[in-house]
Amino acid sequence: MDNILFEEEQISLLGKMLYYSANHLTQREREIYDQLVEHLLRKVNQIRKMEKRTTMADDSSITDAQHQAKKNAIRNLGPEEVCRCFVDAWNKQDFETEYFCLARCFPVHKRKADNVHEYVLQRMKKYQDRHSVGPLYKQIAEITSAQTHGNKTSVYCFENHKMPDKNLSLQRQYDLIFEDGAWRIADFETLKSHETAKTVKKA
Fold this sequence. Notes:
The structure is a single chain. The protein is of the alpha+beta class and 203 residues long. It is 54% helix and 25% strand. It is built from six helices and four strands; from the N terminus they run H-H-H-H-H-H-E-E-E-E. A hairpin with a 6-residue loop joins strand 1 (137-145) and strand 2 (152-162).
């Protein structure tokens, strides 16, 4: 940043010098002046581009480190804990963690994204759309696991999804696979669904 300020100060100084001595410069001296200013401007632009690339690289490194930390956190979880983490990630709008709970084989039509950045954007949009008509909160009321077979297992959850005008009670099956050192969700389906309308209290 100090380099840019110094170069810009030089350009400003040259401008003042030209203003006060314009009538005393030869054609050749004017050409040299223009070349000098162009050189300094190119230098300033190069420094700005380098600083921009450095900043972007630093931001990318921070993001990569954050993503790695979220991945590592999932490695320590059992199948039931992964499902709890996945459901609660919606409430926290922690869609990076939600993404890392999913296995590579998770159906594309449900994931609707090829990478974590696209996934987070589309989940944020869905969250905002839901909250335009009121909040939605997800909670696991009961959870059980099936027997593990090799690197695969299933988890069954009774979930309560709270909405402004109704509550949804869902029974879901989560199929998990042990992948990259962690249990991840390969797919899930809703087995049963029950809707309860909320009663509006009159004043």
